[in-house]
Amino acid sequence: MSTTSSPVDKKLPHRSSTLRSTISGFERRASMSDDEAIPGSDSNETTNLLLERLRAWKHMCGYLEDYVSATSKVQKSMSKDFEKILKTVNEPLKEGHHFSQSAGGVSSFFESVRSNTQGMANLCLDGERNLKTVVLPILEKLHKDIKVKSSELQTGASKGAKAVERARNTTQKHIDLLTQNTSALDATSGSKVDASHDPYILRRGVVHRLNKQVIEENNNRQDIIVVQNNFQQFEAHILQTIQGALEQLVEFMGNQSDRQKTMYADMLGTVQRIPPDFEWVNFITRNDSTLVDPDAPPRSLANISFPNQDHRTTQPLIEGSLERKSRTVLKGYSTGYYVITPARYLHELKDNDDLRKDPSPELSLYLPDCLVGAIDGNKFTVKGKDVSGGVVGNAFHASSELSFKAPSARDAEKWWNILKDATRGPIATTVAAAAAAAVSPIVPSSPAVATHQPPAYLEKDSIPSNTAATASSVAETVTSPVSEKVTEKATEVATEHA
């Protein structure tokens, strides 16, 4: 029988691993755990950082607005009022850690503002009107632009983050369910579990939900990357707007004393020397572990592991395509994907694809409650009751005999041997099972014997008249308590037929 590849081996969506990228001469690293089903990082972490940065720019703009407004008032009251102006910028910037503390940045610019304002104690009042009608509106408009940008980011990012959280919660619940049932199956030494709680089925369900989660994560990640790429241009716009506002301020104050002009020119020179990308480059250098690296590849489902992924109860004893005879005579045989699990279930699924939809069994037979017939070339039968509760199972709500056809006689023998091994467990509780075991050509005394000589159960009309004698002779050769009970049942059935 050809080896069937695992569904997880297919080409699947993947998520980012830790990689390096270079931006403006600086190396940064951003990582998302590529081997964790549920990453520990908050999906809102990057968005919150960018929102905080926008608040920093907004407060910085507010500082300048306060400064210009106070300056216009100070024009009336001379030096005492200029002391009030100094107070508007005397406190440290809110979210000041977002700005570079080295020379040539926003922080050094505000240091220049404070020192020059202290020297403007004797400013004139000539520029009051121009400050209120020209400079302030520029800064107020910039303040509104920053607020709009913050609102757009918060609204757009919240949808993707919520979708990621929902997907992660769903995956985690299914992983917890898999953990509970694998532990339960180990603790109870392979006793019967519900078909829907078969660890094999649960593991495939985890893969299905994990695939949806990765898609949501990558979609959210791509949205954040687009926002990050726009931030550099937006911050350049902020700095350029501030530069333009200060240029107007200097022009209006040009008619005042040379000292005043020199002080304002110094303020202007300080802010103009800030490169448009100076603060952004320093920002991403300091926060390289938090920001998303746009050059890193997306997450990969093939590289993700989760608890009990390779647990022995999740690995099939045998799986592959078989043909099952339809109950409708005209339809003949139909092909399906079948698997025998360590939980001793025979499941029928539409295919072995875990990604397109949730892999729910179409048919599930609990083998210890079933009767396996003899091999006829590449055909064999299994008699039992479907416990899946699926659409196909509704047609087999009562015990039915299902006929299967393997690709070859050798494949049929492999399936038959594993089926027989799976049915061995608790003592047979039905007369039919006992009778089938009694009239088999050879009553096996061990699993090894059963593997080499498959038994067959006979139809009622084909039982010979000397069945009782045959059963009696078999009973003499079997010494185990299980065989004795099976022989007694077989003798009773044979007597009834006789």
UniProtKB/TrEMBL annotation:
Q: Which domain of life is it from?
A: Eukaryota
Pfam families noted in UniProt: BAR_4 (PF20400), PH_20 (PF20399)
Q: Does the keyword Phosphoprotein apply?
A: yes
Task: Report biased composition (Low complexity) as residue ranges.
Answer: 468-484
Q: Which CDD domains does the record match to this protein? A: PH_Slm1 (cd13311)
Q: Which residues form the PH domain?
A: 315-424
Basic and acidic residues bias locations: 485-498
Reply yes or no: does the keyword Phosphoprotein apply: yes
* Designated name of the protein: PH domain-containing protein
Q: Which organism is it from?
A: Aspergillus rambellii
